[in-house]
Design a protein that fits this description.
Elements lengths: L23 H4 L4 E4 L2 E5 L4 H14 L1 H9 L5 H11 L4 H11 E4 L5 E3 L2 H5 L8 H10 L2 H14 L2 H14 L10
Antiparallel strand pairs: 1-2, 2-3, 3-4
Length: about 180
């Protein structure tokens, strides 16, 4: 009799599989695109990038934060829409995040990170390049793996305890029945 497979996320990864452990993005090809003749690659994403993303959301969109707390923010497209929604309120945070994950090969063959000055240059990054960048972020394998792990966390006992603690701390003497 075959063992029952436990699926843990939308990609169909099995619990304990390489994708579950975050190994799949390690070997995945990073998103690539070309702007004005220069080829760009998005580098691997890490904890610092997740924190930068949270800064974007906290600075720009309280609604996205509420979705994260409620556990309804779990797909790359919604996350990318949140970055767009935060742009008017968190422009510098968004630029730091996006420019920080783009790399290119210089004329000597060395890999270079895009600087904020380069990112601000419309000759290097015209308005039309924004769609390619957003699409790359939405398809980034590290982002997909991260969201799969967040979904697994949302289904855990720890998440339930965090939610209960948050609800209890939101109650005030003036409003003891607050259900934030």
């Amino acid at each position: 009799m075959a063992a029952k497979k436990e699926v843990i996320n939308d990609t169909g990864a099995e619990k304990g599989s390489d994708e579950d452990k975050g190994m799949n993005p390690l070997f995945a090809e990073m998103p690539k695109f070309e702007v004005e003749g220069r080829k760009y690659t998005m580098r691997r994403l890490g904890i610092v990038d997740a924190l930068a993303g949270l800064r974007v959301f906290s600075a720009g969109s309280s609604g996205m934060i509420r979705q994260m707390q409620a556990g309804t923010l779990s797909d790359p497209q919604t996350l990318v829409l949140g970055i767009l929604a935060a742009l008017p309120y968190a422009e510098n945070h968004v630029k730091d995040l996006v420019a920080g994950i783009l790399t290119y090969e210089d004329s000597s063959g060395n890999t270079r990170k895009v600087t904020n000055t380069e990112f601000d240059n419309p000759d290097l990054f015209p308005i039309t390049s924004l769609v390619d960048i957003i699409e790359g972020i939405g398809n980034h394998p590290d982002l997909r793996a991260f969201l799969g792990n967040v979904k697994r966390l949302r289904n855990s006992k720890l998440w339930e305890e965090i939610q209960n603690t948050t609800r209890e701390s939101a109650k005030t003497p003036e409003n003891p029945s607050s259900d934030n």
